[in-house]
Amino acid sequence: MASTKRSILHTDKDSGVRSTDARDALLLAAERCLALHGLDGVSLNVIVKEAGQRNSSAVQYHFGDRKNLIREILKYRITAVNKNREDRYREVCNNPGGPGLIDLVEALVLPLSDVIISSSSPSYYVRFLEHLTNHSVYFAVLEETGWPISRGFAKVTEHIRVKLAHLPEVIQSWRIRSLGENMIASLANVETMIQLRQIGTIDGIVSDLVDQLVVALEAIPSEKTLGLIRNS
User: Fold this and answer.
1) Is residue 113 predicted with pLDDT exceeding 70?
2) For the chain, which residues make up each domain, given as ranges?
3) Matching SUPFAM superfamilies, A to Z (predicted)?
4) In sequence order, what are the residues at sequence separation of 6 or more whose Cβ sits closer than 8 angstroms to the Cβ of residue 42?
């Protein structure tokens, strides 16, 4: 019996499989905690307890520090999201006449909404991502993770910029930035609504989100806006 207890207490180091299980448990617990309480709103000890780990230094053992933990949470899902984006982008680029604006926006939105739809339990990733993209650590984490993980986003938004070439450059940049922020904020809200059982299926909501984002990109700037930009 004593040896059984020992094996449970030391799963991190006893085997590669168990170590991987412990690492994944920490990643998922951290994703959930940081999504609900913010990147600075929960201690590493709380994350360890939420992950069901007995070793208080489990985070340091697997990740080193908080920033590395955050980086690994980002990588845990964003690699698949990025591949999905690149695949969708290649597909719509093969459309006769090339992709329309709605095709490009769908190539951005659907890979992220798929994270929510495909989850067999409550999803927390987009809420985590919302906190991360509004935190000072974001660009440092992204650079350390490797910019290729955002390559799909970059390809699609550069193509969107081409579609907006008739607009002043400052408006192009602002609308693309707003596109990313509104996409993440809206899907984070969808995650919360699902968890609170305020909605069931989200296909219609996601489709409407795409419609809203396209309308925002296509909006004709007022003469007042154009005048203010010319005079700035």
Assistant:
1) yes
2) 1-64, 73-230
3) Homeodomain-like
4) 33, 34
